[in-house]
Amino acid sequence: MYCFSLGPISLRLSSSSLVLVGAWYTIFATSSVWSGALIRLPKWVFILLLLAPFLMAVIHGRIPHLRRTPEGELYGGFHLPLNMLPGREYGPPETEWLNMGYWENTTIFPEACEALALRVASMACVHSGHVLEVGFGCGDSLLLQLRHPSIPRPVTITGITSLPSHFHRAKQRIEQADLKEKIPTRLFLGDAVFREGTNPSSLTAEQEATVSIMESHPLRYPGNETLYFDSILGVDCAYHFKTRNLFLRQCYDRLTPGSGRLALADMCFEPTSSTPLTYLSKIIAFILRVPSANLIGRRAYRESLEKIGFDEIVIEDISSSVYSGFTAFLRTRGIMWVLFANIITIWHKGGGKFVLVSARRS
Ligand SMILES: C[S@@+](CC[C@H](N)C(=O)[O-])C[C@H]1O[C@@H](n2cnc3c(N)ncnc32)[C@H](O)[C@@H]1O
Q: Quick check: CB of 97 below 6 Å from ligand 1?
């Protein structure tokens, strides 16, 4: 229930009353008797009114994927049930993936998530070396680097992620994993974008642990002059960074000159001709915490990479292998996931593109 106060007038609106207003207006504005008499509002106002319950559910945190954590973050632990394998719905899931997945030849969430991470790794052409993984969530993409048979083991792996609960979970899972090789693993809790004057976490370094906690930002520059990465990877996260362009510039400085590669599963925005859908997509981007500076199309994305100095740039639109499989899967998971699937569908129809991006430091 929402209360609006305009001087002495106070309105109490529930989501259902907003829908009724929307439906009322739609019926009357289209009837021949009333159409001349009513003030014409833009079409997107109807759509907004009809979508009111949706937006209310988001604001109230009733849609799990859009609920904020106590740290004000979008993500939390809601994704764990999605990782349950069919027929094995009891006990904790083996994986804790949290991306939209690459749904070619599978309808199973963890398989699709792993497939997306593998596509990113293959775009990076990782041949061993020093690897940085940003937005690593609960650590599955790090574990992939540490043990997947089709990926060459890195010399060192460094990770940055912003949410403390994910950070600790990833650290614990790597420490408990049965790994054949001991690969130095350093994790940093904080924003993927380095900002002068910001302290990392208040955590202290644990010298003896398998996984050490970094106190200095891996993308710090100047500083860390000897720390170069052969590849920097990010699965389904860079569109959140404030801003992604600043992050790309910092990546460039930290990649090995002449060979270091960046590979991201990311999102672009290329508005369709429908203005209402564009507006809605922008509202959804705001809810999904995508800064407006990141709402650019593939051409502008390529230009910004070129301007920074990257070459061998590839930007591949994989929307058709991501959104339809992901939303079809969500629609099998209950009403709140259906609402979330609808939000993703609107985002896609309004111009949201899912892309694989790779580029080399020249
Ligand atoms: C959609 S999840 C992807 C997680 C993981 N890559 C996976 O595939 O399971 C996005 C992740 O990026 C992290 N993230 C979001 N904004 C970030 C930022 N500014 N800096 C670092 N990590 C960020 C979130 O905490 C979350 O773990």
A: yes
